[in-house]
Design brief:
transcription; DNA-directed RNA polymerase I subunit RPA49; DNA-directed RNA polymerase
């Protein structure tokens, strides 16, 4: 089953801050001037478990970073080694 995510428009973004950690590493600070962020949210608003799903993608010319608040990467036990 595939999750359907929609782009969150700038005027729909809540004022709540986002705290993110990308699983594929830190964002290269040399590319900060060229970062493009896109926030996606689940289109399923009826399922309580799915309606709060978010994915944030940060893109540079060389790399695409993605972080989400669901799935295996979002579980706190996966951060412990």
């Amino acid at each position: 089953m595939t999750a359907i995510l929609n782009v969150v428009k700038e005027d729909e973004v809540s004022v709540n801050p986002l705290l993110i950690q990308f699983t594929n590493g830190d964002v290269n600070t040399e590319s900060n001037d060229h970062l493009k962020f896109t926030l996606y949210k689940s289109s399923n608003t009826e399922d309580v478990r799915k309606k709060f799903r978010r994915t944030l993608v940060a893109e540079t010319n060389r790399m695409k970073y993605s972080g989400s608040n669901f799935g295996m990467a979002a579980r706190s036990s996966s951060l412990c080694k």
